[in-house]
Amino acid sequence: MTPPRCSGATAKTPFTTIATEEDPYCYQVGFGNRFATEAIPGTLPLAANTPQRCRYDLFSEQLNGTAFISPRVSQQHVWLYRIRPSVAHDPLVKGEQNELLESDFSMSNKKVEFTPTELAWDPFSMPNPEEKIDFIQGIHTIAGHGDPTLREGLAVHMYLANVSMQNKAFCNNDGDMLILPQEGCLDLQTELGRIRVRPGELVVIQAGIRFKVTLPDGGPVRGYIQEIYGTHYELPELGPIGSNGMAMPRDFEIPVASFDIDQSQWSIVYKMAGKLYSSKQNHTPFDVVAWHGNYAPYKYALEKFINSATVDREQSDPTIYCVLTAKSKIPHVSLTDFLVFTPKWSVTTNTFRPPYYHRNTATEIMGMAYGTWAGTGHALAPGGLSYEASFMPHGESYERWVEATTQPLEHQRVAEGTLAFMFHITAHVAITEWARKCSGVLNLDGPKWDGLGNYGFLSRLDEVDKDLEAMGLPKLGKH
Q1: Is residue 394 a known part of a binding site?
Q2: What residue stretches are annotated with the Homogentisate 1,2-dioxygenase N-terminal domain (predicted)?
Q3: What is the pLDDT of residues 301-321, one digit of tens each?
Q4: Any known ligand binding at 428?
Q5: Domain residue ranges of the chain, discontinuous segments joined by +
Q6: Residue 169: beta bridge partners?
Q7: 479: annotated binding-site residue?
Q8: Residues with Cβ < 8 Å from 124, sequence gap 6 or more?
């Protein structure tokens, strides 16, 4: 008797995303996974990293993002199988410097200053069309602390560019770069594959990975960078939230192997301790035919973030909106937390709904990809920044306080059409001379709290005295 036929299907390949008109590339998915990808099938060696002879006479090369003796749980590295090894280049020379790029945030550097003053910048100006500024020369350091030579600290930059990099690759030896486009898309060709990133997405390029930035929309472009020294970005712990929520690991996208055959002249620009060096080579650096490992760039669409917040009363702390975090050298203390503010419902009862008045051990640097953000003394605009120093008081304007304490608390959708973010930095941060004096967009008009007369508690002292008297307690006295 013939057995009944069964229907069904079996996957033939692992999951990858599908290319779209907005993003022509496909990606592997999963934060921190170990990936294996081949542009030519059968290129990866089996059960070996360094066979005597790789297929097609490719060169095997390892890139380590952590020390060899790091615990297994924190090991990050990747094996590359490439047409030519990276060592095939001419001698390094001092390159064209970017004078607005800073990496030393010590007290001895006269080009940076620690200040407790609240600062805000209107949208940073695009490059003069008469000047041709690529991504490397378009980096403008705003703030930071620490030093990459100590592998501790970070820097916050703006990038402002109007031309693509031509036969040039950039390799940042100082740290990992979290890049947030605000105006215009970026097309990044990396050694491990291609990535297209738009406003509303982030991309992380780790230290030591070479990449090239082109402007698919023609430019100009503007965006934000947070560069961390000596550590890597991680997903925050979920704690009682459980297995799901916030930034989901499967929503992070990692490039697939992609290579060029190109024997033209190329320049590789390296950044080390904030200085630029370059070398020439007669072949493209983007010749990796296959790779496997977990040290790879990735992108994430911030609109995919799953908000978790109170649904009854009270406020959660802003770190409930943490997308990525990075550890400092102090146990249980982060170097920085990257927070994102996306549309959500506000439904709490008997609660002051705007961000509470605050003095924070952390420095807060806030920016915006798109939308509107008002209520504080300075209305943040896309392409601008705000800065609140450690332990300095900040909060909503008086007018916003009046509105929030008197209006009916109805269920409402907030931040619709807006994507704002914060670098929540657990240290004092120094501001560069360019950001303080030369950017041309520093806005010194802070919130005005003087001259408002007797408001709030002071306008109700008679009522307080009556209540104290009713309780048999002494009045406040003459006022």
Answers
A1: yes
A2: 27-302
A3: 999 999 988 889 999 999 999
A4: no
A5: 27-302, 308-447
A6: 268
A7: no
A8: 140, 158, 160, 222, 383, 384, 385, 439, 441
